[in-house]
Amino acid sequence: MQSLIIPTPDDWHLHLRDGAMLRTTVPASAAVFNRAVIMPNLVPPVTTVKAALDYRSRIMDEVPHGVSFNPVMALYLTAETTPEQVAEAAANEHIIGFKLYPSGATTNSTAGVKSVDALEPVLAAMQEHRVPLLVHGEVTDSDIDIFDRERVFIERHLIPITERFPNLKLVLEHITTADAVAFVKNANSNVAATMTPQHLLMNRNDLLVGGVKPHNYCLPILKRRSHQQVLQEAALSGNPKFFLGTDSAPHVQASKETACGCAGCYSAPAAIELYAEFFSQHNALDKLANFASGYGADFYQLPRNSETIELVKQQWTVAETVDTANGPMVPYWAGMGLNWRLNR
Ligand code: NCD
Ligand code: ZN
What we know:
Bound molecules: N-carbamoyl-L-aspartate, zinc ion
Order of helices and strands: EEHEHEHEHEHEHEHHHEHHHHEE
Shape: globular
Number of strands: 11
Structural class: alpha/beta
Strand order of the largest sheet: 2-3-4-5-6-7-8-9
């Protein structure tokens, strides 16, 4: 049997939700990842250090005995966020940064930012305190086509922000376009990007050909194959600006398989195996370790993990459904095969 040992990975973009859902989502991610950046798009959103620390302790309550898992919290940036809150966040080891959601861009983003320009004082404070800005990079204007929203956000907002704040640490989350890859590559070393399994493994044909596939629907939406290929090249290149962030985003089956379905792919039950599948498809499994367990920690100036995990070459099939307290959930890649499996 072939086996691959890599340092324990970290998930730099994760949605766990709250309440009884944590009983499903926390063990799934804690089984493989050491650290995870926990996204703050709850209802109401997690906007203060106090709310984030309370949320973090609810997460820790669900970590199985004997398992090490360190949630690092992102705070939800709003028009009310102050430079003082930035300083408070900078001083707390459990807070990793602020997440910018353009209002209306995605699940639970109504409290998000309506004017990026109005953020100047807060961005200045983040630059000064070296607090990273994590960005959902899509405009929400109704006249901008959904497939162009990431590119237009980069042109209108990200290029000006990086020019105005060259020392601001910025992560463009879950990138989906050649435009995003070019932006990140051309920016200085303070700019990086996370990449999801679905955007590496799929393109919009997987969403729309042969019937609508709601479980492949996430935001930013899957793009055409030529964009997927540029994302793949970036991940395979070994450029340290590109690293793992699953964007695992649980929604129950009833909320996905409906006339107006939620955006998000629940990839946590097979997260590392999905990335292994991608790298092995391209004969580049040697690149998995840095992508999953190295570059993200380096970017955030955190120590790399010293423990390891083992993946074994073994065919298996992702479950059709996962039970949760709120009803069944269909994971990403449900019912489909994978060639590598975490040795649990
Ligand atoms: C995420 C969610 O469900 O919270 N959904 C998604 O499609 N990715 C939100 C997000 O990261 O955009
Ligand atoms: Zn997300």
